[in-house]
Amino acid sequence: MKTTIKTLLLAATAAGLSPTASAHVVLDQPAALAGSYYKATLRIGHGCDGRATTLVKVLVPEGLRGARPMPKAGWTLQATKAPLARPYDSHGKRITEDVREITWEGGPLPDAWADEFSFVAQLPARPGPLPIQVLQQCGNEARLEWFDVAVPGAKPPRSPAPVLEVLPGDGSGHAH
C-alpha cells in the first residue's frame, strides 16, 4: 500500500501530534517517515521585539544524519561539525563526526516579514518526536531561544522548539 506524506500528516494531526499553535518558529512539514531523507524548512514568523532577525542557528539533533544546509541569498552560511556519541556507517564509510550546528547570519529579516531556512538530513530509524532547537538573534540586543519542549498535559512552553514527528517507515531510507 502506498502511503503519502499528506496521509501521514493527517494521521499525525488526528493523533494530537500537530505543531504547537503558539510557536513562532515552525516546521513547514511537521511529520516524516523514519529513515527517510527529509528537507527541514523552518519558518521564522517575526523578529525580536520589533527588531530584525540577523542570525538563525539550528542545533541539529543527534538523531539526524548528514545534515546539509541550503544557502540563502544575503546570508552567510556556516555548518559546524562535532564528534558523535554514536558513530554510524554511510555508503561504506564510518562517520565519527557530523554537522551539529547550522548558522545563517546576515539578512536582515525585518520584524514585519517572514522567511524560511532549510536543510536536508536523514531521519533516525526510530519513530518519535524530534525537537529541533533554534536560536534566533536580532542584532546584538535581542535573542529568542526556541529551545523548550512541550510536555503532554503541562502548560505549553513560552518558547517552544519546533518538533518533527518521526513516523514509522518501511526502513528503505526513502519516503513513498
UniProtKB/TrEMBL annotation:
<dbReference type="InterPro" id="IPR012533">
    <property type="entry name" value="YcnI-copper_dom"/>
</dbReference>
<protein>
    <submittedName>
        <fullName>YcnI family protein</fullName>
    </submittedName>
</protein>
<dbReference type="Pfam" id="PF07987">
    <property type="entry name" value="DUF1775"/>
</dbReference>
<dbReference type="InterPro" id="IPR038507">
    <property type="entry name" value="YcnI-like_sf"/>
</dbReference>
<feature type="signal peptide">
    <location>
        <begin position="1"/>
        <end position="23"/>
    </location>
</feature>
<keyword id="KW-0732">Signal</keyword>
<feature type="domain" description="YncI copper-binding">
    <location>
        <begin position="24"/>
        <end position="166"/>
    </location>
</feature>
<feature type="region of interest" description="Disordered">
    <location>
        <begin position="157"/>
        <end position="176"/>
    </location>
</feature>
